[in-house]
Amino acid sequence: xxxxxxxxxxxxxxxxxxxxxxxxxxxxxxxxxxxxxxxxxxxxxxxxxxxxxxxxxxxxxxxxxxxxxxxxxxxxxxxxxxxxxxxxxxxxxxxxxxxxxxxxxxxxxxxxxxxxxxxxxxxxxxxxxxxxxxxxxxxxxxxxxxxxxxxxxxxxxxxxxxxxxxxxxxxxxxxxxxxxxxxxxxxxxxxxxxxxxxxxxxxxxxxxxxxxxxxxxxxxxxxxxxxxxxxxxxxxxxxxxxxxxxxx
Length: 248
Description:
Layout: H1 2-27, E1 31-38, E2 43-51, E3 62-70, E4 74-75, H2 78-86, E5 91-95, E6 111-116, E7 118-120, E8 123-135, E9 146-151, E10 155-160, E11 170-173, E12 189-192, E13 194-195, E14 201-206, H3 213-238
Parallel strand pairs: 1-13
Antiparallel strand pairs: 1-2, 2-8, 3-6, 3-10, 4-8, 5-6, 7-8, 9-14, 10-12, 11-12
C-alpha cells in the first residue's frame, strides 16, 4: 500500500499541473490577427492589425510587434524602409538586413521581418502597421500567366519594460531585436498566443509563358540592333569628330 501511495503522488501532481495548464489556456484569449495586401501590381502595402486578448491594464507600457517570414517571391526595399523610418512612418527590422532587390524569385531567399506596430487611438488593445512590399520577377510558366505568392500569418510578440505582463498567457521568446519602449535597449520579448488569420494573403504576380520565350528573345535582339543603328546614324550625321594628335 505504501508503495502504491508513493506511485500515486507523482500521478496526482502531474494531473494537477495538467489541469492548471488547461485552465490557464482556457482563461487566455488569443490575439486576433488580420493582414491585407493593399494597392495593385508589383508594389503593394502589407497592412497588419492585431487585437490583444488581454485586459486593458495588462497592455499599458507594452510594445507590440509582428514577426513574419516573407517568401522569396516578395521583398522589402531596405532603402525605402530607411527613408520611411527617418520620417517615423514605419519601423521594422530586416533579417538579413542586406536585400538584393534585383534578384528574381528563383535566386532570392526568405526574408524575416520584425514589424513594430503602433497603438490604435480608439482601441487600447489594438495595434497596426503598414509595410511596403514588392513582388519579384518569376520564371516563365507553362500554362498560367500568374504566379501566386502566399503570405502566412505572422507571429505576435510583445515587450513590456515598465510593467509585468501576464506571463501565464505570454511566454518568453528569443528575439534578437531591441525594444523601442526600453530606454537602455534591453527588454524581454514575449510570444503572444494568437489566432491565425482566417485566410492567407496571396499576391498574384504576372509571369510570361514559356512558349513565348523565342519570340521575346528575337524581338529584343531586333529592337536592340535597330536602336543601335539609329544611334550610330545620328552620331555620324550630327556628331562632331576631331582627331587628337599623338604625343611623341
